[in-house]
Amino acid sequence: MSLYQDHLNTLHAKAADFLASEQLDALVLTSGIPHFYYDDDIEIPHKMPASLRHWIPENIGAHQYLVITKDARTLYSHRPKDFWLKVKESFGPWSDAFTLEPHESLEGLFAALNNATQTQKTIWLGPDVPDEFAHNIATQTQKMAIDSWRLIKTEFEIECMKLASIRAASAHVAVRESLSEYISEFQMNLDYLDVTGLRESELPYGNIIAYNDHGSILHYQDLDQTPPAVLNSFLIDAGAVYDGYIADITRTHPGEDADPFFITLLKRMRAIKLALIDECKAGVSYMDIHRYALKLIGELLIEHQFIVNIELADAVDKGIVRVFFPHGIGHLLGLNTHDTPSIAKSLKESNETFKTLRLTQSLQNNMVLTIEPGIYFNDTLITQALENPEIAPHLNLERINPMMSYGGIRDEDNIVICDDQPRNLTAEAFAEIGAPNF
Question: pTM above 0.90?
Fold first, then answer.
């Protein structure tokens, strides 16, 4: 627990500085209340917000309220006597670092919260702030300041993300080995869950498990229950969680019916990913990494004549490369899959080149982010491009059409920014489980 205690000390020091600068006595973080599906009494699986998970590495449920002052941390916790649902009798070892105030009734809990904060200048942050405290909700500027504490990761956070990566990598290897059994996307997803030991509701995002042309749909979720008659390709974008921290890994594999040319493209895309990772150092603009991705992918598309009769710079500037690579090169990673969205974009970029980029800041030491270049042969994108007279003449359908049944290629690693060579958590995880070239 020493790494966790160091993490907590660092976090509390930031909170104390924030309270002093804002002339506040306390910050209250909420976990939210139970929510139910529309017109139903079935509860939606609860997920604590990142603002609270930053302090507490366990999903402790709804109606939890953490009061932070400059020198104390008190958790006001709803712990009802319930015969319908199991209520945790105790929390993990992390709870030794907090003062715990359990309450059986919500009335008693809110009365205690009111007594503790009524004479203090307090702000509240999180979902479902009780009505009686709603006048003290944090402003957007205050929220962004608190979110910024998650931008640079502590050693504890990086270690959790490494362990999440090992959990995800183990499942990636297992389901890749089962590909020869010719199982459905649906069964592949079940196998992945089995290896991670996670419920579907505990995953950081819905697994993307896509055969053939399904891989062209960036967030494909259908999970066919029947194996395809022909297996050209298999794209899996699936992660895992450890103590609230996320791994987000994507791999694309050739199917048993794959053309050798597709395997050539796969190898080139993995080489492009590694070249991009090599450029990720403290002080480098993430926008420059995205520009470099467009250049490398554009070179590949021109070399193999998917794009024709145009220079590389013009293919990038006119948006032709984005027909095949429509998303950003990656995003921040942490307690959320797309972490700290309120501060990730330091400027509003009107240029279409960066419209889909989720991070526009320069990189800093101990940021954790993804690098995920891709090329896609997506029917919607190709059809729209063919309707554009500036783009259509440069698309070579004789080359593109045979690849439509392969869907796409995406390869994604999670990295920690350093002064020099970044630390690749994904590569470390695969090496640790004996699959270094996966």
Answer: yes
